[in-house]
Inverse folding.
């Protein structure tokens, strides 16, 4: 499988709140990894707000949930200050070890796990390398992307063009709305 194929998510939704979690549960998914930055909160936000906390608590009734983030310990621990949730910092997505560690922490099987994130090059690519599902969401506030993410976005743009050319149906189904969202 070539790189562009590994950057195609299983689905796209406008935000974490739009995902049909009940349907995922019916499909046998019992574990969810969430990216943090620009998936749950913008880079310029420090802590999860009340709505986000209640939302995650609700999900924890049906799923094992973990935050898989490439950012530092201080930022992740502060963001999750008010919610009891396992997390991995400096995950170095798309490398595999963070995903594998996360599976171990949740005692989860890869075919029963999905990651939800806002970047093709880290969240989706990493998930497909490890063999877990991936759901792409629009960034909360793309203007707040940090330098490394801005760099990833440039590669992402090239990959998106390639997918559009090589797999137009999948592009239209899963990525067009993502591209249109920013
Ligand atoms: Mg992100």
């Amino acid at each position: 499988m070539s790189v562009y194929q590994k950057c195609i998510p299983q689905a796209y939704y406008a935000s974490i709140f739009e995902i049909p979690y009940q349907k995922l549960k019916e499909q046998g998914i019992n574990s969810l990894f969430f990216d943090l930055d620009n998936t749950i909160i913008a880079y310029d936000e420090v802590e999860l707000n009340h709505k986000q906390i209640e939302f995650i608590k609700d999900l924890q009734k049906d799923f094992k949930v973990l935050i898989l983030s490439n950012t530092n310990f201080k930022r992740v621990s502060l963001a999750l200050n008010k919610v009891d949730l396992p997390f991995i910092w400096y995950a170095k997505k798309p490398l595999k070890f963070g995903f594998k560690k996360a599976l171990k922490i949740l005692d989860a099987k890869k075919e029963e796990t999905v990651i939800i994130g806002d970047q093709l090059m880290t969240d989706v690519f990493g998930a497909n390398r490890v063999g877990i599902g991936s759901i792409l969401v629009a960034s909360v506030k793309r203007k707040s992307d940090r330098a490394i993410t801005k760099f990833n976005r440039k590669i992402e743009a090239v990959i998106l063009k390639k997918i559009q050319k090589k797999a137009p149906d999948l592009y239209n189904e899963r990525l067009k709305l993502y591209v249109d969202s920013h």
Q: What stands out?
A: The mean pLDDT is 96. The chain has one domain: 3-180. The radius of gyration is 15 Å. DSSP finds nine helices and six strands in the chain.
